[in-house]
Each structure stands twice: as structure tokens, then as C-alpha cells.
Design brief:
Oligomer: single chain
Number of helices: 19
Shape: elongated
Radius of gyration: 47 Å
Strand content: 5-15%
Helix content: 40-55%
InterPro entries: P-loop_NTPase (IPR027417)
Length: 553
């Protein structure tokens, strides 16, 4: 049998082999020298020999002549024929030359056959699924719910049952602490809270001691205070301190179950005072929230009770009490129904606009008396913000209806109750606050601390000391903060050479903070400036200067 080497070499070939020679070329490199072999008997043998002779990287698939015509029949190959070998697959008869990159893809190719999905195994439904959904939708945490449930159960026990419990003292202390926390949190939520520069400072401690002296020897019903003073002088701080001490005094004397705290910051509600529905919901939600804290045995039914109160102004017919409430024998059903009837009747009458507003503002005291309290304790911050006329809505559209001044009706409601009110602007406050029997507390001359430090500004020349603060807690605390910032800026300077003009980023930031606090103090003191220290020219010059040199001496 002849080897490939003998086929391409005529000398080594058998003398009997008379087959003609053919020349093989790579179709990709037609200029390369050809390889000469004897003509095999079939096309398949030519393709096999081409792989070794031409050293092709892939198996040979097609044969072409010099005119680039494919050869598929061995008889068409003559002697000394030039054959071009290709490794490309021969085209199918169905294939046509197309610019496939420019043609849209067939719609059928976009749909892929997806594997069939097995239906998931259904988990058995939990027995407590409804309870878990209610817990998830509750705005309070699980820890708070557990605490409330324990305290509600403890509050519903009789004194004999409580006396037999080994942990009665612990639960009673937990109840007292929780009630105090809810009252203080209600004040903070209404932004009736101490300033950050006053709390936990000697000035804050002096404010507490001063307020304790004012509450000493007073009965709860005698606590009728109006807090006044310059703008942002610490009135909200004093109001928060007074109410917190008052409630702690009630707890110490076991009078806390007799008084219902009702806090509102009128400045926060000023934007929708003319919306009767929102005003109604404000009083209802705030009163029931504080009632829930004071009467913990009714915690489980406070939700249905709130819904029933809200339905009084949405339904044409007064609905009966929910069945959950009827199961509580100690609940004042008749008194609550009478309160609801008065609200619903005044709402249903076209001429009952003024009476409806009266029912709203007197609701905290009436609901407190219905549940066995002596009265409600009204806590109002920025009282002059409620001095607006409220016009009747379309629901009360009659010719004889006239607008009402909200502050007048509020004063009538709180006249017979203890109250703590604070002003925003004293001039506006005394124009709308019509009560005569009250004790006025002023933030001026409250702080008696005599500071030895002075704040000195070289240009423009300004010298401030503690006397300029007029004893107002917020002013004194801000003055002390400016002194601390000035001392810190001087002692912690990165580049301490007095002749250098370079400053670090930290020093620039610290001086900018000091400048802003100093300008804030100047603006506060300038509102009640009687010595003309902060006139218009000085304030404009202070604000235009890119940098202030503030020293403490």
C-alpha cells in the first residue's frame, strides 16, 4: 500500500502506479507552493490526504477548482489539476445569503420554552395567624405590648388580689414608672421639652429647684400657671419642668389617679385650626391616649372606643357602644353615651357650630370626670397660636352662624381646671388669654448665677456678660455655650503662632460654629435690647464680616 510520502514523491512510488498527479492548495493561502499527490479514487480520500499533506488545523470539508467552483465528482478532476482545499462546511441548499445583522429576529425565537414549575407545598395555616397579623400591624413594639398587657392585667385586679401577690410592689413600681414615662414622652412628642443647652446643666438644676419652690404647698386644683417671658427664653423648658414635677408630686401623694394630663402645643396645630374634623380628632386622640395611660385596665378596649368616638361625626345616627366595651362592668357606659350624644347632636344641628366647638374643647375634662377623675389638667404651649377665628364649614352653613374665637372657648373650658400654659409672644398672649385667676411665672430673673466671664469682640466692639441675659434660662445657657466654644477654639488651635496666616480646616470649622452661636445669642438678646447694644448697624456689620475674633476674659 502506498503511503502519503510515496504518493507525493514520484521516485518512491511504485512503478506500476500510473495515476496522474494533482496539485493541492490551501484556499486561504493560494499563493503558497502547492503539494503534489497522485489522484485518489474518491473525493473522500482526497479530503483525508489533504489533512496530512497541507497540515490543516481542521478537517478538510470542500474542494474547489481554479474558478472557485466546488468539485463533488472525482471524474471531473483531470491530470495536473489545481485543487483548492477548504475546511468550511458546505452550504445547505436551504441557506441563502442574507445580511443577518440587519434583519429583525424572528418572533418565534424570542419565546423560550420554560420548565414546568411544580406547585409549592402549602404550609399549614397557623392557629394564631390573626393574632400575629394584628401584632405586625400594631404601631408599638412587642416589648411594649407585653408590658401593657401585664400592667393592664395587674390594674384590673382587686386590692385583695394585689395584696396576695409576691411581686405586687414590683408591678406597682413598673406602673408608676410607665405612667411617668408616657406623660413625659407626650410632652416631648409635642415639642414641649427642655432645650439641649439647658438640660443636665447647673442652670437646668436651678430651674428645677426654682419650680419646686413655686409648687410647694399648693393643692393640685390651685395649680394654675401662665408662663411668660421674652421669645425663646426657655418658656417651653420651664413648662416641661413644671408639668413633670407636678405629675411626680401627684404620684408621691397618690393623687395621680385623680387628674388627667392633656398636653397640646398649639404652634404645631396652627396650620389646620380651621379644619373642624382635624381639631376634633386632635382632642379625641390626645385625651384617649392619656386616658389609656391613667386607666390601664381599659387598654384592651381603647381601640374600639376611639373608633366609636370618631364615628360620632361621620354617621348620621349615633351608633351604640361596641360589644367589647359592654363586657366591662366598671366602664362608665351611661356617662360616655351622654358625652357622645352631646357631641353628635351639636354636630347634626346646622346651627350647632359654636356648641360643637365647646364640646370639643371641654371633652378632656368631661371624659376625665366620667372615668372618676376630679378634672383634667390642661397643658398648652404657645397658647397665643390658637387665638384665631374659626368660620363655620359647609356642614354648618346657615345664615345666622357666626365665626368663633377658639382661644375664648378654650379659656372657658380651662377656667375650672388646673392648667399650665406658656406664651410664644407676650403681647399676643395677653390679648387672647382672658382668665384672671392664675399665677404668672416669668423666665426673666429666674437664673441667679453670676458668671465671671465676659465675651469680648474687638471689631465691632461688643462686650457681653451674664447680666445681659436677664436671668432667662435659655439665654444664660446659650451664653455659657458660647464661652465654652470660644475657650475651646483658643486652646485647641492647631497652629498657635500669633503671626501665622495659615489655619487648619478644623480651626475654620470650629470658628464658624462659634460665630453662628454668637450671632444666635446676639439676635436673642437684641429682641429685648433696652441698652441699644445690638442696633441695626452693629448687627449688619457682624453678619457681613467673614470672620469674627471672639475672646473670653
Amino acid at each position: 500500500m502506498n503511503s502519503p510520502r510515496s504518493i507525493q514523491s514520484p521516485r518512491a512510488a511504485s512503478p506500476k502506479d500510473t495515476r496522474p498527479f494533482i496539485y493541492l492548495y490551501k484556499i486561504e493561502f493560494p499563493d503558497n507552493p502547492p503539494k503534489r499527490i497522485r489522484l485518489p479514487k474518491t473525493i473522500t480520500e482526497i479530503l483525508k490526504l489533504s489533512n496530512d499533506v497541507l497540515e490543516l488545523p481542521r478537517p478538510a470539508r470542500q474542494i474547489f477548482d481554479a474558478d472557485n467552483n466546488p468539485i463533488t465528482d472525482i471524474e471531473k478532476i483531470g491530470a495536473k489539476a489545481k485543487l483548492y482545499i477548504s475546511c468550511a462546511a458546505p452550504p445547505s441548499e436551504e441557506d441563502e445569503f442574507q445580511y443577518k445583522s440587519r434583519l429583525p429576529k424572528p418572533a418565534g425565537s424570542t419565546f423560550h420554552k420554560l420548565p414546568t414549575m411544580k406547585p409549592p407545598k402549602l404550609k399549614p395555616r397557623r392557629e394564631d395567624q390573626a393574632q400575629q397579623c394584628a401584632i405586625a400591624a400594631c404601631p408599638t413594639t412587642v416589648k411594649e405590648n407585653l408590658r401593657d398587657s401585664i400592667l393592664s392585667l395587674f390594674a384590673s385586679l382587686t386590692p385583695e388580689h394585689k395584696a396576695k401577690m409576691s411581686m405586687a410592689a414590683t408591678l406597682q413600681k413598673m406602673t408608676t414608672d410607665t405612667q411617668l414615662y408616657v406623660v413625659e414622652n407626650a410632652l416631648i412628642t409635642q415639642y414641649i421639652g427642655p432645650s439641649t443647652v439647658v438640660s443636665n446643666t447647673p442652670i437646668g438644676q436651678q430651674v428645677q429647684a426654682w419650680m419646686i419652690e413655686r409648687l410647694k404647698g399648693l393643692m393640685p386644683e390651685e395649680c394654675k400657671f401662665a408662663i411668660t417671658g421674652p421669645s425663646q427664653s426657655g418658656k417651653s423648658t420651664l413648662l416641661n419642668t413644671a408639668v413633670s414635677l407636678f405629675y411626680q408630686k401627684l404620684q408621691i401623694t397618690n393623687e395621680a389617679p385623680n387628674y388627667l394630663i392633656f398636653p397640646i402645643n398649639w404652634l404645631l396645630q396652627q396650620i389646620y385650626l380651621d379644619d373642624i374634623n382635624k381639631l376634633y380628632n386632635l382632642f379625641i386622640n390626645t385625651a384617649l391616649k392619656m386616658l389609656r395611660n391613667a386607666r390601664m385596665e381599659y387598654i384592651p378596649i381603647m381601640g374600639p372606643f376611639k373608633q366609636w368616638m370618631s364615628s360620632l361625626i361621620t354617621q348620621q345616627v349615633q351608633a351604640p357602644l361596641p360589644p367589647q366595651i359592654l363586657h366591662y362592668t366598671s366602664f362608665p357606659h351611661d356617662a360616655v353615651v351622654n358625652i357622645g350624644r352631646a357631641i353628635h347632636d351639636s354636630w347634626a344641628k346646622p346651627e350647632g357650630f359654636r356648641q360643637f366647638i365647646k364640646e370639643i374643647v371641654s371633652f378632656p375634662n368631661r371624659i376625665a370626670q366620667a372615668f372618676g377623675f376630679k378634672s383634667a389638667v390642661y397643658v398648652f404651649d404657645h397658647f397665643d397660636s390658637c387665638g384665631y377665628e374659626i368660620s363655620p364649614t359647609d356642614h354648618f352653613a346657615t345664615e345666622n352662624q357666626s365665626s368663633v374665637v377658639l382661644s375664648e372657648l378654650v379659656c372657658e373650658a380651662i377656667d375650672s381646671c388646673p392648667f399650665f400654659v406658656a406664651s410664644q409672644n407676650d403681647f399676643d398672649f395677653f390679648n387672647v388669654f382672658s382668665l384672671q385667676e392664675y399665677k404668672q411665672l416669668s423666665t426673666e430673673r429666674l437664673v441667679t448665677i453670676k458668671g465671671e466671664k465676659e465675651i469680648y469682640v474687638q471689631q465691632p466692639p461688643i462686650v457681653l456678660n451674664m447680666d445681659h441675659c436677664r436671668g432667662c434660662p435659655a439665654y444664660c445657657a446659650t451664653f455659657q455655650r458660647v464661652c465654652d466654644l470660644a475657650e475651646e477654639a483658643a486652646s485647641r488651635t492647631a497652629l498657635k503662632s500669633q503671626f501665622t496666616k495659615l489655619k487648619s480646616v478644623v480651626d475654620i470649622s470650629r470658628n464658624e460654629m462659634l460665630k453662628q452661636e454668637f450671632l444666635k445669642l446676639c439676635i436673642l438678646l437684641g429682641n429685648e435690647d433696652t441698652e441699644n447694644i445690638f442696633n441695626e448697624e452693629i448687627m449688619n456689620e457682624l453678619m457681613e464680616l467673614p470672620e469674627l475674633v471672639i475672646r473670653v476674659r
